[in-house]
């Protein structure tokens, strides 16, 4: 019975192919819009999370700020030692200094940034080595002229496919031997390309580039079992004590919690995606109204046909099922075309915006299910109207 009804519905749809296609445009656009918006929202979330992960996971970034008098007080090695030794749950503490330099190799130059770091920095900021090695303890202690370059510098200054390990590169007037290539770190603080940096022992950078022992900022990597608020409170208390801040005085430093940033950004992007998807879903309702409108027109056009079917024994339930099936088939067709359209649109948009493409089976199946449901909801009234036609009056219809 259902097979016969489906075949009759398909036959009727084929009789008016152009009208059927135009009828489903609202569903196609609605499904494609919802899927594309959700897909791009998920891709944006993943991309932002990857950028934030470049700062490290469960990491606090501490940096000095000006006080009420406009005085800026940097950190020093003793601050790093105090945090490492006096606060429970700390895995690694790493100070950092940096400055802009020009990298020169084989007659080519490239504007970059030199960062003075330690091996603890690699742990705290989750920096992996793609090729080569980290600094040795002796190199760190002596502040040797050794360096680890980022992916961008390797691409800009060195021959593709040729290892830069062991090569001598000059940073301004300071020569350094390349001992490693860092894995991609993405975009860091201040929207800077962290791959466009050279890592050197912090003592070397302080002595050869900065000219003092100050520390620009430091990263604290803490255990995942430790509450971030408790960790921040402990760090604030210790630093206020060390920086001789009296009660009532504002902090002359600030702390950024990467876990909190990640959570906030993910929540914000998720909310915006849901809002945009909800707005796009309005076109599904518009498409449903279009389906209902065309089905009502179809009932009027086929009134005499309905009368003949009822006169030869068709029941009202069968007529209702016939028109309802046509509406559902139209919506399902629109849903499938919309999914295919959304796939191509999502791939193109992700490529254009430099985002990863993420295929989510759930949103695709859900969108198809909603399109079928719209066929049932908006097809019911025309189908009900067709089933309630009086056979005698229908036969008289011209």
What can you see in these coordinates?
The structure is a single chain. Helices cover 57% and strands 17% of the residues. The chain is an alpha+beta fold. The chain has helices at residues 2-15, 17-53, 77-86, 119-124, 137-142, 151-157, 202-210, 228-242, 258-301, 303-311, 316-353, 361-387, 391-396; strands at residues 59-64, 90-105, 108-117, 129-132, 146-149, 168-171, 174-182, 197-201, 217-222, 253-257. The chain has 13 helices and ten strands. It folds into two domains: 2-50 and 263-396, no CATH class; 74-251, no CATH class. The longest helix is centred in the C-terminal third of the chain and has 44 residues, at 258-301. A six-stranded mixed beta barrel has the order 2-3-8-5-7-6.
Characteristic key phrases:
6-stranded mixed beta barrel; 398 residues; 10 strands; elongated; alpha+beta; 57% helix
Task: Show the helix and strand layout.
Layout: H1 2-15, H2 17-53, E1 59-64, H3 77-86, E2 90-105, E3 108-117, H4 119-124, E4 129-132, H5 137-142, E5 146-149, H6 151-157, E6 168-171, E7 174-182, E8 197-201, H7 202-210, E9 217-222, H8 228-242, E10 253-257, H9 258-301, H10 303-311, H11 316-353, H12 361-387, H13 391-396
Parallel strand pairs: 3-8, 5-7
Antiparallel strand pairs: 1-9, 1-10, 2-3, 2-6, 2-9, 4-7, 5-8, 6-7
